[in-house]
Structures are given as structure tokens and as C-alpha cells.
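hey m, so remember when u said the C-alpha cells were messed up on ur end? i reran from scratch. heres the input so u can diff it against urs
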Amino acid sequence: MSVGPNSLTCVPPLGQGDEEHRQVLASFLLCQLTEEDLTQNPLFCRLLGSLSQHVDHTGLTLPLRRELEKAEQELQLQRLGWLRSEGLFQALQEMIQEHFVRKYHSSTTAENEEFYETLEQCLLVAQAVRQLDPSPTVGQDQLPFLGLSAQNILDRMPSGQDVQRMKQRLLTALSGHLKKKCFTILTYYQPDWENESDPLKSLKLSRLPEILQSESRKAESLGEKSKESAALLQRHMHCYLSELLGCIQIIQSLILDHRIKAQKELDVKRVEYLDAKCQIVTRKIRLEILELQMDTYTTEKIAAHRRIRNELDGELSAVRAEKRSVESALSSFEILGRDFEALVEQYSRLLQEIDNKSWAVKEFSQHAA
């Protein structure tokens, strides 16, 4: 079911004018509450109404909310301080890395080499001291790492004159590096400003935090409005679904009532249709069989089959007559009994001996010649 902006305006306001219901639903957006729940439980609705005066929309009490906001502010200050120091440290490291990259592409002066070497050494010492400095939550009696103390690391600092010269130049170099990074961020935010002059870029850069902050607030406002619209849409969807379920139930009851009356006629029509369809299919099958027989048995093939059948019938008659004669001879032989069998065996033996003698005479005649 699609819900468009025009259909939302047709929905009656939630609570049907009940201000208490709207207040409870607006105060507890995170809870899956519906107007139907509040209507069915009026005492629970009153309890939530009185409770909404002491808690916010997230469920926290007002004093706890103030303490939480204070803690978040302190955390924000601590985080801001850490981000400042960490950002400064990262910027100095980037300056050193860029110097080493430039050194491989072009020659540098001895003053630059001394400045960046002193800066790198100071950063390494500061980082090592920070790693060796124990946290307040760690016991002071803990053994130092590799037997080193912060003072041992501070002894590796460059000379005071080198550090002083490095500090005199550091502010200018760091300002230029940060200005370059700020211009990069500005052109990333608005690429059309890349070809403008540095004073104009500086002016726009000074207004960039306000622009980003206003856009952030606008995005947060749009996010809140989106959440409220989503909650409102969910409640409207619940109303629509309730109405839709009611309509579906009515339609189902109408369908059941009318289908029982029309079922008999529908069954009769269906049986008649299936019967007619069965007859058509049967006739079609019979037609296919006849067409297949006509294609298979032509006039010439039928005449040839008839001639073959006549010849086979004649041979079958001759075989049957021969069978009858053989059976009659066999029956006459069976009447003679065992004596005839002995004579047959003797006759066979004599025939075999005659054949043997004839073969011997023939062989003898060939060798004698």
C-alpha cells in the first residue's frame, strides 16, 4: 500500500482532538505506543501524562539530564584540548615529512636543515617523555621502562641556542603550513574558490566555521524532522492498516456468502466444460490415430502385405500337411514297438559300416593307382 503526501492529509488527527493522547505520544517517541493502546488503558495514559512532566523524550529525569549535559560539556572541553595538542603535533610531523620530500627533489639551505632537524629532535623527545610519563591512575612505584626516566630523555634535547632559533621561526612556518591546509579544506568545500586571491580566501575561510555550523544545525533539524515524520507516518500507517484489515474482513464475509450460492451453478458449468473438453480431446486423439494409420499403410503397402499373407498362408498349409503326414508315420512307427527300434539301429549301423568300407576302398584305389 503506497502512502503519498495527499493521502496523509485525509487522515483525521490522532487522538481525535484528545490533547492528552497527543502529548503522551509526542513525549515517548521511542516507545512503540499507539492511540489504540492509550484508549484501551486510560489509567496508564494518565500515568504517562504525569510522568512526561518529569522526564524527557529519551526517558531521563530532568536533574539527570542536566548532570549529563554538564558532563558532556566537560568532556567536550577535555576533548577539544586533546584535539588541539594532537592536531598541533600532527601538523609539525607533516611539516617535517614535507621537508624530507622536498629535500629529495631540490636542494635546501643549511638553515632549513638545522631548523627541521632541531624540530624533529624536539618532537621525538617530547613524544618519548609523554610515553614515559605515568598516568595519574598508574601507581608511582611502577618501574620505569628500560630503567629510563623523563629526565634521561630531556638530556637528549638540542642546545638552547638551536631551540631558541627554532622557536623564532616555528610560528611563521606553522602558520604558513596551517594556512595552506585551511585553503585546501576551503577549496575542497567549494572548488570554485580555488582561483581566487589569498585575502578573499582568508575572508571566506573566517566565515567557513559559521557556515559549516549552520549547515550542521540544518542537517540536525532535518534529521529531527525526518524522525518526527517517520513516527507520524508510522502512526498513519497503523491507522490505514487497521482500516484495511476491517475492509478485508468485510470483503471476506461477502465473498463467503455469495460463493456458497453460486458454487452449485459454477460446479455444473465446470463439469459441462470438462465433459466437452474431454470429448474434444478424445476425438482429436482418434483423428491423430487415423491420420497416422493412413500415412503408414498406403495402397501399395496393403497389396504387398496381402501377397505376403497369401504366401505365408500357403506355406503354413503345406507345413501343416507335412506335420500331419509325419505324425501319421510316427504313429505307425510307434505301433511296431521295440523290435522296430532295434532294426533301425542295426540298419543305421550297417549304413555306417558301408560308408566306412566305401571310403576305405576309395582311398585304397587312389593309393594303388
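this time it looks ok to me. The longest helix spans residues 198-296. if urs says something different then somethings off w ur setup not the seq
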